[in-house]
From TrEMBL:
Domain ABC transmembrane type-1: 22-299
Main subcellular location of this protein, as a coarse class: membrane
Transmembrane segments: 20-41, 53-74, 135-152, 158-176, 236-262, 268-284
The name this protein goes by in its record: ABC transporter ATP-binding protein/permease
Keywords: ATP-binding, Membrane, Nucleotide-binding, Transmembrane, Transmembrane helix
Localization in the cell: Membrane
C-alpha cells in the first residue's frame, strides 16, 4: 500500500527532490543556529571586537535570507507537489468512474463516489505533501538536536530527555481529546445540514401540513447540540494550547535553573546555556509535527485505501482482446436463448428468443417489471447476458468493441437527462462537433423550433438547476433532436408512462415517427398510437415472451394483449 502510494511521486520526482532537499537544508540551518549563538557568546563577545561582530551579523543575515527563501520553496513547492498528486489521482478516479458498467452504479451510492472525490482526495493530498517530508525532517531534527545537546553537556541533556516524554504524552493526550471533540462536532453539523436540506427540499410538504413550528423546534434542537459540541471542542483546544504552553515554559525554566547551577559549578558556559535554551525550542517543532502526522497518516491512508479499492474494480463489461470496431450496421437483431439476472438466483429473463429485422418498428408491451427495459439494456451491452447470445447482423455483440456498438444505437429514455449548460449544448450532446445548421435542422425535425424561437436567448438559453425548467414533453423532444444528430441505425425508445397532454403527445408521436424511419426501432410502448403503428408487437410477461404478432393479429387472438388493450385503452 505504501509503495503504491509512493509510486504517485514518480512523475513529480524533480519537484519532490527540490522540495525535500530545501526542507533538509532549512532543518540543518535551524540545527546549526544555536551553535552559532554559543560561539558568538563564548568566543566573540569577550573579544569586544566590533567590526568582527558586525561582519558576523551580516553573515547571519545572509544565512537567514537563504533560510527564508528555502522556507518559501518548502511551503510553496511542497503544497504544489501535494496538489499535483491529488490532481493525478482525481483524474484517474474520474476516468475510472466513467468506464464502469451499469451494475456498478446500481450497487454504489452516488454519495459514496462523491466523498472519494472530496474528503478522501483532500486527506490524501495533505498526506502526500506532509507525509514523507515532515516525517523525515522531524526525526532528523529531533535526533540531531539531542545529539548536539549531548555533545555539549550530558547532564543537562539527560534532564531534558527525562522531561520531554511528559510533553509528548501531553500532546498525544490533547490530540486524542481534540479528535474526539472534532468528530462529535462534525457529526452534529452534518445533522444540522441534513435538517436544513430536508426541510428546504420538503418545504411544500412542511407548509401544506403547516408544520413550520415543528420543523423550527426540531432544527433548534440539533442546532443547540451542535453549539454545545463546538463549544466543547474550543474548550479542549484552549486547554491543549495553554497546557502545552505551560509545559514548554516549564521545560525552559528547568533548563534555566539547572543550567544556572551547572554554570556556577563551572560545568557549563554562558554560551552553552543559551544554546540549550534555543535547542529546547528547536525540539518543540518536530514533536508538534509528529503529533500532527499521527492524525494525518491514518486519515490519508484510509482514504487512499478506499481510493485504490475503487480503482481496482474492473469494469464488468469489457472489450474482448480481438474485439472489432464495427462501422455501419444494418440492424438485424437476434436474441438466441438469452438468460439474464441482475442478482444471483433471481432470473429476469430466461431463454428468450427474438428476431428483429432491419428497419422495422417493434413495440414491447406488458406489465411493469416484466423485463422490457432489461431486454433493451442488453443490446448496447449495458449488462452482459448470463447465457445465450445477442447478435446484430449475424455478429455476436461481444465480438464488437462496446464503443462502436454503442455508436450504432440511440436511446431515448423515459426521464431525459439534461446537463447544466445551454439548450444548444444539450442538443449537440448527440454529436459533439455538430455545426449550427445541423443543430437547427435536428431541432426542427424534433419539432422544437417554434419553442426555441419563443425564448429570448434562443439556443443559448441556460437550462438546468439555475436556468430554464423544461416540461417532460420538451425534454423528450431535446432527446429526439439528439438522436437526429447521432443518426444511429438502431433506436430504443422507452416511452414515458405519465400521460402527456394530447397535443404534446401528437407532436412527439410525429417526431418519433420520422425518427424511426429506416431504423430498427424498439419501443417500450404505453401509447395506443405507437402500438398501432408498430410493424410488430411483442408481449412480455414475467414468464418471458408471451405473444408476438401485428397489432390486429394479436387483438384477434384474444389473449393477453387483447386483455391488456381492453383494460388500458377501453376498447
Ligand atoms: P419493465 O421495463 O418491463 O417494467 P424492467 O426490465 O425494468 O421491467 O425490470 C425487470 C425486473 O428486473 C424487475 O423485477 C425489476 O425489479 C428488476 N430490475 C430492473 N432493474 C434492475 C437493477 N438495476 N437491479 C436489480 N434489479 C433490477
Ligand atoms: Mg421499464
Amino acid at each position: 500500500m505504501i509503495r503504491r502510494f509512493l509510486s504517485y511521486y514518480i512523475p513529480h520526482k524533480k519537484l519532490f527532490a527540490a522540495d525535500f532537499s530545501s526542507a533538509v537544508v532549512v532543518a540543518i540551518l535551524e540545527l546549526a543556529f544555536p551553535l552559532a549563538v554559543q560561539w558568538f557568546v563564548d568566543s566573540l563577545l569577550p573579544t569586544g571586537n566590533w567590526s568582527t561582530i558586525a561582519w558576523v551579523g551580516v553573515a547571519l543575515f545572509l544565512i537567514y535570507g537563504l533560510s527564508t527563501f528555502l522556507q518559501y520553496v518548502v511551503h510553496y513547492w511542497g503544497h504544489k507537489l501535494g496538489i499535483n498528486i491529488e490532481t493525478d489521482m482525481r483524474e484517474q478516479l474520474f476516468e475510472h468512474v466513467q468506464k464502469q458498467s451499469f451494475r456498478y452504479f446500481d450497487n454504489t451510492k452516488t454519495g459514496h463516489i462523491m466523498s472519494r472525490f472530496t474528503n478522501d482526495l483532500f486527506d490524501i493530498g495533505e498526506l502526500a505533501h506532509h507525509g514523507p517530508e515532515d516525517m523525515f525532517i522531524a526525526v532528523m531534527t529531533f535526533i540531531g538536536a539531542f545529539w548536539i545537546m549531548f555533545t555539549i553537556n550530558v547532564k543537562l541533556a539527560l534532564v531534558i530527555l527525562c522531561i520531554v516524554p511528559l510533553l509528548i504524552g501531553l500532546i498525544i493526550f490533547c490530540n486524542l481529546q481534540m479528535n474526539k471533540a472534532w468528530k462529535q462536532m462534525f457529526r452534529d453539523i452534518a445533522d444540522v445540514n441534513a435538517r436544513v436540506e430536508d426541510s428546504v427540499s420538503g418545504v411544500r410538504v412542511v407548509q401544506s401540513f403547516t408544520n413550520e413550528r415543528f420543523e423550527i423546534s426540531r432544527f433548534n434542537k440539533e442546532n443547540k447540540k451542535f453549539r454545545k459540541a463546538k463549544i466543547l471542542s474550543y474548550k479542549v483546544m484552549a486547554f491543549s494550547l495553554s497546557g502545552i504552553y505551560m509545559m514548554t515554559r516549564f521545560i525552559i525554566l528547568i533548563v534555566l535553573v539547572f543550567g544556572a547551577w551547572l554554570s556556577f559549578t563551572g560545568q557549563l558556559s554562558y554560551g552553552e546555556l543559551v544554546a540549550f535554551i534555543l535547542y529546547v525550542n528547536v525540539l518543540f517543532k518536530p514533536i508538534d509535527k509528529i503529533s500532527a502526522l499521527m492524525e494525518l497518516y491514518p486519515k490519508g491512508m484510509a482514504g487512499f485505501k478506499r481510493l485504490t479499492e475503487m480503482l481496482d474494480t474492473e469494469p464488468e463489461v469489457k472489450n474482448s482482446e480481438d474485439a472489432v470496431a464495427v462501422k455501419t450496421l444494418r440492424g438485424d437483431i437476434q436474441f438466441r436463448n438469452v438468460s439474464f439476472q441482475y442478482e444471483n438466483n433471481k432470473p429476469v429473463l430466461d431463454g428468450i428468443d427474438l428476431n428483429l429485422y432491419a428497419g422495422e418498428t417493434v413495440a414491447f408491451v406488458g406489465p411493469s417489471g416484466a423485463g422490457k427495459t432489461t431486454i433493451c439494456s442488453l443490446i448496447p451491452r449495458f449488462y452482459d447476458v448470463n447465457k445465450g447470445a445477442i447478435s446484430i447482423d449475424g455478429m455476436d455483440i461481444r465480438e464488437m468493441t462496446k464503443e462502436s456498438l454503442r455508436s450504432q444505437i440511440g436511446i431515448v429514455q423515459q426521464d431525459v437527462f439534461l446537463f447544466t449548460g445551454t439548450l444548444k449544448e444539450n442538443i449537440a450532446y448527440g454529436m459533439l462537433d455538430a455545426s449550427d445548421e445541423e443543430i437547427a435542422d435536428a431541432a426542427r425535425r424534433a419539432h422544437l423550433e417554434s419553442f426555441i424561437h419563443s425564448l429570448p436567448d434562443g439556443y443559448e438559453t441556460q437550462i438546468g438547476e439555475r436556468g430554464l425548467k423544461l416540461s417532460g414533453g420538451q425534454k423528450q423532444r431535446i432527446a429526439i433532436a439528439r438522436m437526429f444528430l447521432k443518426n444511429p441505425p438502431i433506436l430504443i425508445l422507452d416511452e414515458a408512462t405519465s400521460a402527456l397532454d394530447t397535443e404534446t403527445e401528437m407532436i412527439i408521436h410525429e417526431a418519433l415517427t420520422e425518427l424511426s424511419k429506416d431504423r430498427t426501432t424498439l419501443v417500450i410502448a404505453h401509447r395506443l398510437a405507437t402500438i398501432r403503428n408498430a410493424d410488430r408487437v411483442v408481449v412480455v410477461t414475467e414468464d418471458g415472451i408471451a405473444e408476438e404478432g401485428s397489432h390486429d393479429e394479436l387483438l384477434n387472438q384474444n389473449g393477453i394483449f387483447a386483455n391488456l388493450h381492453r383494460v388500458q385503452f377501453g376498447r
